[in-house]
Amino acid sequence: MIRVLIADDQPLVRRGLALILGPDPEFEVVGEAEDGARAVALAHELRPDVVVMDIRMPVMDGVKATEELARTLPETRVLALSTFDMDEYVVAALRAGAYGFLPKDISPEELIAAVRIVHTGEAAVAPRLLSRLLSAYVRTPAQPRPWTSGTPLELTPRELEIWRLMATGLGNAEIAAELDISVSTVKNHITGVFGKLGVRDRAQAVIAAYESGLVAAGSGSG
Description:
The structure is a single chain. This protein has 222 residues and is α/β, with parallel strands linked by helices. The protein has 10 helices and 5 strands. It has helices at 11-21, 36-46, 62-72, 88-96, 108-119, 127-137, 157-167, 172-179, 183-197, 202-212, and strands spanning 2-7, 27-33, 50-54, 77-82, 100-103. A 5-stranded parallel beta sheet has the order 2-1-3-4-5, with helices on both faces. Helix 3 links the parallel strand 3 and strand 4. The longest helix is centred in the C-terminal third of the chain and has 15 residues, at 183-197.
């Protein structure tokens, strides 16, 4: 059973999310929080597997709450929610450690699928939507940020190309077709990219591509 904590400042939204997830025997809604600070406190108390986190909340917003949970409860994974699918706060949440995000107008089936994906440790972000977001809101700084570990120079030419294709919004199957290699080979290379860049998932790898200057704003597809 996947234990879920719901954090949103609107009671109606919290209740709606709980009514979607609660009846499914795969999920247990263990608590609800009206702001980010309460979400962090309840997460420490209840130890949920997934927190469905609204980004814009009072007291402590969802970005700060996500950053705090990523630091103190890394085993609890955050799925961010936004009223708009193009929102700079979404990028901030992904950078802070969210495993994915959904706009609030998604279907119940999409919510259930995303919670399952996040629970497995995968990133629940559509590749093309991620690319559009980052193209709009991430800018290459004058001095590229230091890497947690490794540098782009340590990537093999193939890894560098796959990293670039990820950043332009291609999924694994599309990358495999572009390079005429198998999807399993693409996945192996992506694992190598993550390790060398010191990033946790696809979202953070794509953010790193923009911040390093590998791709520039406006270069993403879709």
